[in-house]
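Listing S7. Sequence submitted for prediction.
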Amino acid sequence: MSLLLGVDTGGTYTDAALVRDEREVVARAKALTTRHDLAEGIGKAVSEVLAAAGAQPGEVSLAALSTTLATNALVEGQGGRVGLVYIGFSEADLTRNGLDRALNGEPVLLLDGGHDHAGVARSALDLDVISAWLQTIPDVSAFAVASQFATRNPEHENAVAEMIRTRTGKPVSCSHHLSARLNGPKRALTALLNARLIGMITRLIARAEEKLGEIGIEAPLMVVRGDGALISAAVARERPIETILSGPAASLVGAAWLTGMRDALVSDIGGTTTDVALLLNGKPEIDPEGAQVGGFRTMVEAVAMRTTGLGGDSEVRLATEGLAGGIELGPRRVVPVSLLALEAPDIVLPVLEEQRRASTASEFDGMFLRRVIGADDQGLSVRESEILARITGVHPVSTVLRARMERQALARLRDRGIIQFGGVTPSDACHLLGLFSAWDGQAARLVLGLLARKRTGAGNALAAGPEAMARMIVDQLTRQSVSALLETVLSHDEGFGPGHEQLARHVLMQKGLDGHKGLLRMEAGLNIPVVGLGASARSYYPAVGRRLGCEMILPDDGGVANAIGAVVGRVTMRRSGTVTCPAEGCFRTHGAQGPRDFATAEAAMNALEEELETVVRSEAGTAGADEIEMRRTRDIRHSEVEGRDVFIEAQITLEATGRPRIAR
């Protein structure tokens, strides 16, 4: 019997699970996620799960990894510095689909070239311009290349990518490799984000493979894609953008496997995010518009997941509007003070005690920061370098920040993932309420007391004390969790249609959830079960279920559902191409080989299917699939012109699927 090892690296915990022959969970384990080097947490979780099962490393025939690394990086605005070559587009195109926001001042070259909708070159490509540009830009970790209508003819993207690789040796992300659909700015955005993630995912996979090897596991490593399918580590290195929503997708697969539910709302609360998706007929819904993460809509095929910056380690922020005061959670993750106190008790506890003894509250009370060891710190400004030099371990923010003008530089260091902030979180609140006890309860009490005495707009203390502050935080998490679930349901409910998610916070909805009975009687709730996943789901979600008046299912192994889902999935690769009719009697295929013309639509579609099958079968094999099965779909558009049926366009999709290849 073979043992399958699933690992999930979350924002706070790294989970490991051993599954025997896809039938039963043999053992599960958790270790703290080590952000400075995720492989350390992976190694600890894997060692513990092997010990719990009494298994030898050589018994593991497959290892699979799901990770929130890419998702969290985009939510928190992190990643490597990249350059974009934008071919055949105008300056105005940089503002579409949030591309300018994603660039955020990083180098971009607008270059003549590209093709038209029929795949014909619009103008010649001047490679000398690229050569000169490469000599002027600051150091970057990778490049993205996007050409107009590259999905109809990738010639210019391929040429530019080859030159960049030859001149720089850096990774290049081509937009046509990531999507076969039109919409150049959106493809450019996807390629840019992919390039930004390459370094992070490459380091994670390399270190994970190294750590597994040290333990004695020689089985192939697979990675969960955003649609729940598995891909080889080599493919994940090349297309890391496809691993966004990897962890949530794995949790959906795990939820279906653990509960046997066919139809349910699945909500997975982690340290950084809450991920909510719909399970229908036992399968996760795929987002037809592409995955949306961190405010960006990509062209990545992924589960139709609503990701909210809400988790056990979400930053607790003071509400700044109005006199009554209050708090808000997220969207950023911070290190819980109760956890930080375990790492540096000689610093955190004395600082908190000193701040407690002060006669008045300070803006930075209970706030710390630390440097992330091994983070890429290239390309820093002078001010950023000066601030970073002051951070040698764990420090109170007040001792590092010496002037207001340094705040922006400190924020950029955080956004680059070079430093982490520590502060009050729901995890700290859980220590005082008896819901959690793994970290330093005294630090939690002190920091919650500091937050409680801060003043509202009316000049009153925010809360009566640490316990009242903790209850306020957990109640706020319940409210925001309820809203996240309602927003997902409203986006899918045909009775409301898209665009009505804002109704989740409407006063009438809240009155309905309260079961208001005055002159008007109102009731509202979910009409579908909710599967609550995540290590902290048992702490928070019973109250969420009561508020929504629905069945709340909390499976025994829900805390490691991501790790379980990682090893019970299948390898799936898809490739699409288009057949157009640029002139009467001419049917043109647009695939990886460039445009080819045929005399009939059927001949063109058959030829494109043959080309795509060769590519996708090879990719599935490279991705680690065994016993490959093929599925073909044709989406053909016709129009009636003067009584004649006229071929307009056909979208051809080939899908190869199989079980992951295991070590024998």
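Caption to Listing S7: primary sequence and predicted structure tokens for the chain studied. Residues 87 and 147 are 4 Å apart (CA to CA). The longest helix spans residues 184-215.
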